């Protein structure tokens, strides 16, 4: 069960598309939770997956489950090498525990006339992106190399929504190509190559709606009036619930 606009839903949805796993898509309104959803997931959160009449939830858990349950469906989300697999989980967790909270602190920052506070929120988010990009494979185009992995799919929905900062917060603030120097130039070049690879990946493009459809939803986040569990957690100074 899903909500089309939810980035956590897009994580699992993209993996289903990428691996070409047959599925039935059931749209629900997570703000008006139907009984059918609550029976499967008492918290009423999306995505919720039903497999052999048994429920699963939590987006990253679902992605890893799909990797294990459908081993013949590529690409592999987790490397075979045990060290590389552990490193994948480290950076997957970094996306959820560091990048996404910083994304929302920047997006939900108020008041807008507090320019210093807004700049600080922007720089915090950019510092997390830079720390992440520094660890990317130097050749790419994906985080671990030539093929996408769990890391890419876990953070891709937020990468596909970076435009919200241009609409509502005066810009993301990424360095302009050619204006960086030294190590920073290579790091941001790598980031832009990775971002482009995600944007062109069919499974990601096919699960992303047109910008116009997201505008009213992200306006509420930008105004800090959104009522999602993540928005409320951000307002209270917490991480991803």
TrEMBL record:
GO terms for cellular component: cytoplasm. It comes from the Eukaryota. Residues 81-217 form the GST C-terminal domain. Gene3D superfamilies: 1.20.1050.10, Glutaredoxin. SUPFAM superfamilies: GST C-terminal domain-like (SSF47616), Thioredoxin-like (SSF52833). InterPro entries: Glutathione-S-Trfase_C-like (IPR010987), Glutathione-S-Trfase_C_sf (IPR036282), Glutathione_S-Trfase (IPR040079), Glutathione_S-Trfase_N (IPR004045), GST_Omega/HSP26 (IPR050983), Thioredoxin-like_sf (IPR036249). It holds the Pfam family GST_C_2. Residues 1-74 form the GST N-terminal domain. This is Glutathione transferase omega-1. It comes from Recurvomyces mirabilis. The lineage of its organism: Eukaryota, Fungi, Dikarya, Ascomycota, Pezizomycotina.
């Amino acid at each position: 069960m899903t909500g089309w606009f939810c980035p956590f839903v897009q994580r699992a949805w993209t993996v289903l598309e990428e691996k070409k796993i047959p599925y039935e898509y059931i749209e629900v309104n997570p703000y008006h939770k139907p009984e059918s959803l609550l029976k499967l997931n008492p918290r009423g959160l999306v995505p919720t997956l039903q497999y052999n009449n048994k429920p699963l939830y939590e987006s990253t858990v679902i992605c890893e489950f799909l990797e294990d349950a459908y081993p013949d469906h590529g690409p592999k989300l987790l490397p075979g090498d045990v060290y590389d697999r552990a490193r994948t989980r480290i950076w997957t967790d970094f996306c959820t525990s560091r990048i996404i909270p910083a994304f929302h602190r920047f997006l939900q920052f108020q008041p807008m006339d507090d320019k210093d506070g807004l700049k600080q929120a922007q720089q915090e988010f950019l510092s997390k992106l830079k720390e992440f990009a520094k660890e990317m494979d130097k050749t790419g185009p994906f985080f671990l190399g030539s093929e996408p992995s769990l890391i890419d799919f876990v953070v891709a929905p937020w990468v596909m929504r970076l435009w919200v900062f241009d609409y509502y917060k005066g810009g993301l603030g990424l360095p302009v190509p050619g204006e960086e120097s030294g190590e920073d130039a290579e790091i941001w070049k790598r980031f832009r190559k990775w971002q482009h690879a995600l944007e062109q990946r069919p499974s990601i493009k096919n699960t992303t709606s047109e910008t116009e459809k997201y505008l009213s939803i992200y306006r509420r986040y930008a105004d800090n009036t959104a009522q999602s569990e993540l928005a409320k957690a951000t307002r209270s100074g917490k991480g991803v619930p």
